[in-house]
Amino acid sequence: MTPWIRVLACSGVVLLIAEACAGRGAAPSNMPGSAAARPLLPQAADLQRNIRDMLSFDANNDGIVTKEELEAGLQRQFAAADTNGDGKLDAAEMQSENDRRWRQSGTASSPLIDWNQDGVIDFAEFATTARTLFGELDRDHGGTLAGVELRVPVARRAPPDPRQGRRGQS
Question: Rounded to whole angstroms, how far apart are CA atoms 143 and 87?
């Protein structure tokens, strides 16, 4: 009987090791830090466009975008789109602004959406996308976009694996 117990015990250990290796590095999808819990980084071109859009709000051209500059720029854009000056964008004004955005950015444009479905776009709805983008780029939550927050990361080659050894060696 002793050999059978050893075989069963070894088999159990092998199965446990195989299970551990198969799940290695994969956190459950509901855990913080897992791929399902964290947002995917935008493609470099999208990130570059988003940074360029945010820099368009840099009123004093100091390379830093503050929340105040963002809000002032959004107010100017909203006022320009609100051609009748009633403080909201009706269907025609919304279509005109969406057309302008399409001409400027094509498929990368962010169309206006009547989120509360009341038939008009108010300033909060108008500003939603830009405010969200600002919040995503403001990684240190300092209320400004500056420095590394306004740069597209450069992909770097991984250093050589030291386990591979030097050329010519086995």
Answer: 26
